[in-house]
Every structure is written in C-alpha cells, then in structure tokens.
Specification:
The chain has one domain: Aminopeptidase, CATH 3.40.630.30. About 30% of the residues lie in helices and about 35% in strands. The chain is built from six helices and eight strands. The chain has an eight-stranded mixed β-sheet. Helix 1 crosses helix 3. The longest helix has 16 residues. The radius of gyration is 16 Å and the shape is globular. InterPro entries: Acyl_CoA_acyltransferase (IPR016181), GNAT_dom (IPR000182).
Amino acid sequence: MITLKGENIFLRALEPEDLEFVHEVENDEAVWEISNTQTPYSKFLIKQYLENAHKDIYEVKQLRLVISNYHNETIGLIDLFDFDFKNKRAGVGILVKSVSDRAKGYGKEALKLVVNYSFVHLGLHQLYCNISEENEASKKLFVNQGFQEVGLKKDWNVVNGSFKNEYLFQLIKNN
C-alpha cells in the first residue's frame, strides 16, 4: 500500500531492486558536493545498506525514500537524517537524479509529502536543510515550501579545493 502519494509521484521504501539506481547516485561525482561524499561506494556496501534499510528511523536516525512516478520509474531520493526524537527535529535532503526530471514539480511534491509525514506521523517540531550558496534551485524549492533562511555558514565545505558557503534553512511547525 502506498501511503505517501502525491499527484504525480509517490514515495516508497528502498527495495533490493534499487541497487543500481542508488549505486549510480552515490558514485556520481556531480552530486558529491550535495551529499558530502568524498569516495565512491561499492555495490557490495550499497547492497548491505539496502538490506538494512528496513530498520526503523528511531533506531538508525535516518530514513531514505525513493521518489517514483506512477509509471514506477525511479526519479530520485529524499532523506530524513540526523533524526532527533528528543528535540523533535531532523534534517532533510532531496535529489532528483536526471536533469530532464528537474523543474517538473517532482521535488516540490516529494518535499511536501515528507514535511507532512514528519510533522503528522513522526511528531517532529522542525526540519532543517543545508544548501550550497550556489544552489539556487534548492533554495527556491525549500523557501517555496515555507523554509526560512536562518544562517550562513562561511567557508563551510571544500569543493574542488575551494571553500564554499552553505546556508541553513529551517521550517518550524505551526502549532
């Protein structure tokens, strides 16, 4: 049963069949800046990760969901990370893999579904995200979903030998 459904996409749990997709994403140097990755991942490690993906967010402090369209094509991934039940917050990250799938509203729908899931089902009070200073599309996406810029972390990440700033955005649930 699909519980996280949007108009054009749905979110689902990771499955063993996602091995190739996750392997491609994790080994795409173009997105390493977004994911703070520095080295490639083997299929063996990703297979192990997928085998443990069923574990509860309360146990592993993370939830990765697949963004799929209604033709069952995998479009991207959306993550809740640094899940902190005590303080009722988590980070959120999103990736629409193919450039041809971007700017079509898939990320917007996925983020809206995860925000609702986080506040209603997980009982979180706030979500946050970290966005590179140059990533205008992500800044626009998160701002359009109600996230507010709350800070600039100067020289936060080293990318190709240069320091880059990163913004911190936050969404606090209206009670």
